[in-house]
Amino acid sequence: MRERFGEVSNDVASQEIIAKEVTEFMLTAGSVREEDLSHLEDKIRARLTGETPNRNTLASLKRAQQQGDEWAKIYALHIKEGRELDEKAKQAAAAKAAALKQVLAGQVADRAAKEQHEKQDELEYAAQEQAQLREWEAAEAAKRAAEREAALRLKGDRAAQLADRNMRKRLADEKRAAEEAELAARLAYEARAEAEAEEAERKAAKEALKAFLLNNESLKAIKEAAKQQEWAADKAIMEEYAAQMEKQEAARKAQVDKLKAWQAAQEREAAVRSEAKRWIDPAIVERYTREAEAAAAAEDERRKAAVKASSKVLAASLAEQLVLKESLKHAHDGEEQAAIPALKEDVAAEASLSLLAPANTSHLVSFACLPAAVFLQAAIRALKEGVAAEASRRAAEKAAEEAKKVALKAALEQQMKLNATRRIVAPMSETEKLINKQLLEKVAQAGLGQLGAAAAAAGPVVRTKTAQQQAAAKSGRV
Q1: What is the pLDDT of residue 433?
Q2: Which 3-state string (H, E, C) describes the chain?
């Protein structure tokens, strides 16, 4: 400490003054802060040099300049009330700790009594176990004697049972040999009968095949009519799906237009406001941003769920069609085998045409003439491409919205900085004094009317408060 005062602290009297002031400070100070040390240093320098204890520092000049700033007085009041609340909280915590200590002492005593009681119960239980053990040993000895007698009786009974079983086994073997000989003769007779029946069935099937080939032309006409009906049903399903997708796209565009109109209205409303009312708290902006993002995410999930539900309905319909096609295929297997080369050529031609079709839902109708498996694969592939395109478009829209939000937030922060640096001390207007009337009355009751005393009580928080923080606090209260 003596090194801070240079040559004025070299003599014994000066050192005694320094030691006395430091000792009094350590006995009276509850806590050591930076402003307390600064105040102690000013006091010692005043006694050594005979000057006033208040140095002409930049902080004191700033407090003198802001002597009439009601905002600083209100801030000092808040600090004083906070310290009083901290002291009350400490006292409450101490009382709570004392009560808890008494409760713990009672619990410890109860635990000791309970342990003693449990120990006595264990001793009594051990004595009972010994008595029960002796009784059990006696019962076991009697039980073993009875078991030995039963084993001897069982041995005699077992010998008699073995003799009877051997006799029964011999009789059963003789009976089984006779039954097997009879079964072999019957199986030979039935095999000859089955062979003759199969030969008759083959002849009947050959005749039926001849009749079927004669009626082949009529069957082809029936099959062609069934295919035409199936193609018409497939086309109706795909047209219904395309209409549903167009309806969803129209609803999405209407929602986007509504959002853009709302944003434009907000921009026009902000443009006509005064500069003082354009400022928005960053916490409010961040909260509105999170809410908008959550709403957009929920809407996106809802649309994805709707697309998935539509896909499931389409897949179920296609599965039903596939089952129908497979049943028709098994019913006319002979004719399908003959038409396989021509069908492969039709599939290849239709697939090449589908690759040249435009990328929209209308080209799904062209897959209706394909077999069931090819039709299902083509429809699923087209549906996946549509979902991927929709996801890409939504990602681009979301990125544009994010960029717009970032730009708006940066503009608000820039405006806050400009408003904060525009003025250092902004005295209250009459309207502001009227709004903060209750706070100013509390300042007067707390004896914080003089800014110098309030600043000294507030500590370094008041001295280090920036102009930007003052402007933000003022805007938040008004």
Answers
A1: 79
A2: CHHHCHHHHCCHHHHHHHHHHHHHHHHHCCCCCHHHHHHHHHHHHHHHHCCCCCCCCHHHHHHHHCCCCHHHHHHHHHHHHHHHHHHHHHHHHHHHHHHHHHHHHHHHHHHHHHHHHHHHHHHHHHHHHHHHHHHHHHHHHHHHHHHHHHHHHHHHHHHHHHHHHHHHHHHHHHHHHHHHHHHHHHHHHHHHHHHHHHHHHHHHHHHHHHHHHHCHHHHHHHHHHHHHHHHHHHHHHHHHHHHHHHHHHHHHHHHHHHHHHHHHHHHHHHHCCCHHHCCCCHHHHHHHHHHHHHHHHHHHHHHHHHHHHHHHHHHHHHHHHHHHHHHHHHHCHHHHHHHHHHHHHHHHHHHHHHHHCCCCHHHHHHHHHCCHHHHHHHHHHHHHHHHHHHHHHHHHHHHHHHHHHHHHHHHHHHHHHHHHHCCCCCCCCHHHHHHCHHHHHHHHHCCCCCHHHHHHHHCHHHHCCCHHHHHHHHHHHC
Tell which residue, 466, 469, 463, 467, has the closest CA to residue 57: 463
Sequence-separated (6 or more) residues with CB below 8 Å from residue 370: 346, 347, 350, 351, 378
Q: Is the pTM of this model over 0.70?
A: no
Residues 325/371, Cβ–Cβ less than 8 Å: yes
pLDDT band at 219 (very low <50, low <70, confident <90, very high): low
Averaged over 167-193, what is the pLDDT? 84
- Average pLDDT score over the chain: 71
Per-residue model confidence (pLDDT) at position 460: 37
Closest to 426 (Cα-Cα) out of 186, 151, 68: 68
Cα separation of 440 and 442, whole Å? 5
| Measured distance CA(22)–CA(42) in Å, rounded | 12
Instruction: Output the CA torsion 328→329→330→331 (10° steps).
Output: 50
Q: Among residues 412, 431, 438, 425, which one has the least CA distance to residue 473? A: 425
Burial-class residue 222 by CB neighbours within 10 Å (0-12, 13-18, 19+): exposed
Structure tokens at 321: 């069609």
Most confident option among 19-23, 127-131, 178-182, 358-362: 127-131
Q: Which two tokens stand for residue 323?
A: 């089952």
Distances (CA, A) of 241 to 188, 255, 302, 365: 65, 21, 18, 11
Residue 346 has pLDDT above 60, yes or no: no
